[in-house]
Amino acid sequence: MPGQPLSRFVDPPPWADAFEAAVFRCLQVEDLSLPMSKVDVAELAEAELAQIRYWRPQGLSDLLFNWWD
What we know:
Layout: H1 17-21, H2 29-32, H3 46-55, H4 60-64
């Protein structure tokens, strides 16, 4: 449905290893399913933390793939 967040993810395909060779990390479903209580946000700026407090994402996928703005 248009305008709705992604709610189902799949693990990266085998060819995604090429991204990791270039120092990118392709997140697994397990990573994206992490609840916010287990997400390390220590390196985020205060403005980003304020957005998290305001929007209250449930998990990492909500934080990464949002339409807050």
